[in-house]
Here is the input.
Amino acid sequence: MEQKQFKETVLLVDANYLDNVQGGFKAFLRDKVGHDLPAADLATWIIDMVMGVLWDATEQAEKTDFSQQETQVVFVCEKNETELRHFLPARLREEVDGMAFSEELFGEFLMSVVEDEHLVEGEPLLVESAEMLLTSQHVKHLIVVPDPEKGLESLRRLQQENTNRHMEIITMEPDPSHGGISLLGYALLHSLGLSPDQL
Here is the structure.
């Protein structure tokens, strides 16, 4: 990714972690609702994640026009693990990388996929990607969905060192502002066509 391509808002996601969490979430919810659940809608999940963060970060958000916004979505995945089991579209390389979609109220979402080939030792690729994005003058909002077991402390350090940037690290920890469910959990739920009051 060249810096001139970066948008003001970037959603950086560990795709394999996201898929694994959704699988566990679906198994839990199946017992709650009493039937199997379909594959989750990836676009719905993306919109919920981005707008959940931006809504909280924007003064008078209810009066703000987000319809012309461009959001960059970057999925980081393990090499040769590019197919999602619990989302549609599922094939990251063929159906997601280089694609875009628009939402009437929240603008355009431009998607790309980066495979971690582990060619060099050091921080996970997601952490290195976050660090690079924070060096760009274009990026104003960086939303990161990491695997908590892979570089979370390094991401927290980056967050503390870059207080001049709006960086959000989203995990499954409960969030009182979203009714006790984390934003990640809410977005996973909504992407399956469910809402918290159905649980």
The chain has six helices and eight strands.
